[in-house]
Amino acid sequence: MTTPxxxxxxxxxxxxxxxxxxxxVAGRLVFLLLGGIALLAGLNGALLLLGxxxxxxxxxxxxxxxxxxxxxxxxTVVVLERAVAVRRGWAYLSPGLLGSxxxxxxxxxxxxxxxxxxxxxxAVLLVIYAEIWRRQAAVSTGVQVLGALxxxxxTTFWLRGIGIPQLAPLLILYLVLTIAGERLELSRISPTVDxxxxxxxxxxxxTLCFGAVVALVWPVTGYPLLGVGMLALxxxxxxxxxxxxxxxxxxLPRYMACCLPAGYGWLVVVGGIWLLRGPVYSGxxxxxxxxxxxxxxxxxMIMAHAPTILPAVLRRPLPYRPIMYLPAALLHLSLLARVxxxxxxxxxxxxxxxxxxxxxAVLLFVAIAVVSVVRGNAMLPARTVxxxxxxxxxxxxxxx
Length: 400
Known about the structure:
- The protein is built from 15 helices and two strands.
- By secondary structure, it is an all-alpha fold.
- Among the domains are: 25-136, no CATH class; 246-392.
- The radius of gyration is 20 Å and the shape is globular.
């Protein structure tokens, strides 16, 4: 009796004309598990950095906390969706390398091996975008390419020994521009998005990338430029993102319309820090900057998009449930306490408790998502299932 392979042949390979394969759903689940391990290890590192009890007492987890969360967790999950979209077996090298790099970072192996895997995974991501661009050249893809270039620069410079605090703007732009490009693609149905609006988005993205490069050499000049660019990006998103007009709808659209603007609001904090305080490499300002982006913005985006991204990867529904508001509310309220009170007024106890509730909110959302995927639409009314069914992108062929 033969065991099923986690990969299946497609295209010319299925006809015996080539070696191209794509992972089955079970194979994709392996990539998600790699990202999940990176998430748990990164949260453990967060507890250590907060100075509270953690399940595993390891200085290494605290040291690699940032790259582990950004590339090992978020990068693996986001790039996996891109690999599914392009329908090419080689594309899965990118999430595989990012996920494996995350595992190497938390293992006894030399850190340089994990760093090298992250560099390789980031390089393959650019090849994925080249394939997407070949199918349909669009400004939204160009903005995401800028984000991917920022990610490759971060991993390369980190491999060469530059510290993460100095690379923070590039690390932030890696995910911010990726998500902004995705929102531009989805907002094309908005009547306010025309050629001029797309040009503004591209100009903002280029300004941010230029500012990040300048900040590496002349921080006093680069950081205010970054602040202006970030605030301009927030203004664009609030003006043109179609999600901001759906707050009076119901079900999943309304849930997304609440999560997305809340995330955009945290980018105002980052832009303000860059504009008013300039370079910050440690202390409360650094904590506020990093967690406003990666918790307030990025995790909020993940919570908003999970019901449409995970079905594209797992081919199983993740139906919207009202309880999803609970972890989202916990995330933002605890982050308000941590950043706007703890960091701003120098109250370490609020930073600690806010950080702990941040972690609880993330784990609670993961638990709700897992249970919802397992149960599927079984407990939802038929009219609700029809209302929250995700749409399909004709450009990338994936559920959005």
